[in-house]
Amino acid sequence: MPEFNLTATDGRPLELWRDRPLGTPVGSVLMLHGIQSHAGWYESSRKALALAGWDTAMLDRRGSGCQTEGRGDTPSWRQLVRDVSVALDTLPTRPRVVAGISWGAKLALAVARLHPEKVDGVALLAPGICPLIQVPFLKRLQILLARIVSPRSLFDIPLNNPNMFTNNPHWLEYLRNDSLGLHQATARFLVESVLLDNWLMWGRWKQPFLVQLAGQEKIIDNRLTRHWVRRRVSGPLRIFEYPRAFHTLEFEEKDSWRSDFIEWLRELPKILSD
Which of 34, 40, 35 is nearest to 15 (CA)? Predict the structure, then answer.
């Protein structure tokens, strides 16, 4: 169950899911989900990281998951980053890693840039920084106009085909029946997402990075993602690509990606000390 004891800087309650190791933690990980998903998608990874000794938390982005208030909305992208910063403060054990999944990679990058003192390492899982899917021009104009006159107007998120996320029959059925998934976002949220994209383009990062890509990707452009990351990350960088995997690595039957993630975490103290 989520812990309800977090309060955002604007007074909004935040939901943080926590999986603690049995013994003394070797470090901590904050996971950030994608635009449509929520913490419930990633229970297996949360538990696997905790079993490996990592104090693991996952923040349900405001307006996502179990939260019914302000569905698909945000005051600004900077408020979302402040939410992440509040969640990071609940994880005292270092090294502290922020792991961004799909759209959540944007927030992971942003908090690592704005608060480098809080983030020792960054993991990006199928990061949504270079999308394959583009919103049509006329729809973009409509969203921009709505942002001005009716910022809470809802628009469909163009990711409503479960086959874009996985080809696993079990998880396809799960996605079709997931009542907590987010399928619409406000004009304000969508414009703030673009503003965040533009801000990230000017960023540079020195922390150790892990990037994990799905070879059967239908949502992001892996080639552009590699170029984007290599151009901006000056710290130690590891990139893995799993040829048969689909976008949501969590739903893969073979979890070699998760083993690679945990191995990178295990090596992180040495990477930081070199």
Answer: 40
Q: Count CB atoms within 10 A of the CB of residue 104.
A: 26
Rounded to two decimals, the pTM is 0.97
Domain ranges of the chain: 2-273
Q: What fold does the segment set 2-273 form as a domain?
A: Rossmann fold (3.40.50)
Is the C-alpha dihedral spanning 123, 103, 202, 77 positive or negative? negative
pLDDT digits (tens, 9 = 90+) for 205-233: 999 999 999 999 999 999 999 999 999 99
Measured in whole angstroms, the distance separating CA 93 from the mean position of its chain's CA atoms is: 21
C-alpha distances in angstroms, 247 versus 221, 222, 254? 11, 11, 14
Query: How do residues 99-145 score in pLDDT, each as one tens digit?
Result: 999 999 999 999 999 999 999 999 999 999 999 998 999 999 999 99
